[in-house]
Design a protein that fits this description.
Largest sheet: 4 strands, mixed
Helix content: 40-55%
CATH architecture of the largest domain: Orthogonal Bundle
CATH topology of the largest domain: Arc Repressor Mutant, subunit A
Distance between the termini: 61 Å
Oligomer: single chain
Pfam family, one: FUR
Strand order of the largest sheet: 1-5-4-6
GO molecular function, one term: transcription cis-regulatory region binding
Keywords: DNA-binding, Iron, Metal-binding, Repressor, Transcription, Transcription regulation, Zinc
Structural class: alpha+beta
Number of helices: 6
InterPro entries: FUR, Fur_C, WH-like_DNA-bd_sf, WH_DNA-bd_sf
Cofactor: Mn(2+); Fe(2+); Zn(2+)
C-alpha cells in the first residue's frame, strides 16, 4: 500500500518541556529527574547506583544532548572521572529504564523530561544554533503514526522523531542581529 503523505492534525493537548535559555533553573530539572528515577527504579526493583545517578544528574543539568565522553568530562570536573565504558553502561541502563533518550542524529543522550509510555511517540525539537533540545508529546501524532505504520505493514522499533531547526530564542536573536549591525551605519 502506498500513500503520499501523512497529514497531522493540530493537537491542543500537545505539550513540551521546553524552557527559556537564560532564566531556567536546572536544579529543578535535576531534582525532578532524580525523583522520577528513584520512584521508577523502586517500582521495578532496579538499582540507581551512584554512577547511574551522577550520569542522570549530568544529563538533567543540560538541555543539550551530551555524548558519553562529554559526560566523562563533566563528571570528572565535579569529582572522580569515571571510565567511558562505565558511563556507556550507565547510559544504557537509563535508556532501558526510560529515564534518558538517545538522540540518534547527534549520537548523544538527554534526560527524559516526561512521564510517557514505552509505545508513545517521542518528538525532539533540536535547535541547530544552540543545541537546546525539547521533548514534545502529542497523542494525535502518535495516533496518526500508528495508523500509517499499520497501513504500511511496518513495525517501528523506536517511535522517535527528531526535528532540527531553530528555537524561538535563537530565531529572535538572528532576526535582531541585522537591525543591530545596521544601527551604526549612516543612511
Amino acid at each position: 500500500m502506498v500513500f503520499g503523505f501523512l497529514a497531522l492534525e493540530y493537537d491542543c493537548a500537545m505539550t513540551t518541556n521546553a524552557h527559556p535559555h537564560d532564566d531556567h533553573d536546572h536544579s529543578a530539572c535535576v531534582a525532578d529527574a532524580l525523583a522520577r528515577a528513584e520512584a521508577s527504579c523502586g517500582e521495578r526493583g532496579a538499582r540507581l547506583t551512584p554512577l547511574r545517578r551522577r550520569v542522570l544528574e549530568g544529563l538533567a543539568d543540560s538541555h543539550v544532548p551530551l555524548g558519553a565522553y562529554d559526560l566523562v568530562e563533566r563528571l570528572g570536573a565535579s569529582g572522580e572521572k569515571p571510565p567511558p565504558m562505565s558511563v556507556y553502561r550507565a547510559l544504557d541502563f537509563l535508556v532501558s529504564e526510560g529515564l534518558a533518550h538517545r538522540i540518534e542524529s547527534r549520537n548523544a543522550y538527554i534526560a527524559c523530561g516526561r512521564d510517557h509510555g514505552t509505545d508513545d511517540v517521542i518528538v525532539f525539537l533540536i535547535c541547530e544554533a544552540c543545541g537546546l533540545t525539547s521533548e514534545v508529546a502529542s497523542h494525535a501524532i502518535g495516533r496518526d503514526l500508528a495508523w500509517a505504520t499499520r497501513a504500511a505493514g511496518f513495525t517501528p522499533r523506536t517511535p522517535v522523531i527528531e526535528i532540527a531547526g531553530t528555537c524561538a530564542r535563537c530565531r529572535a536573536a538572528a532576526e535582531a542581529a541585522p537591525a543591530i549591525e545596521g544601527a551604526g551605519s549612516p543612511r
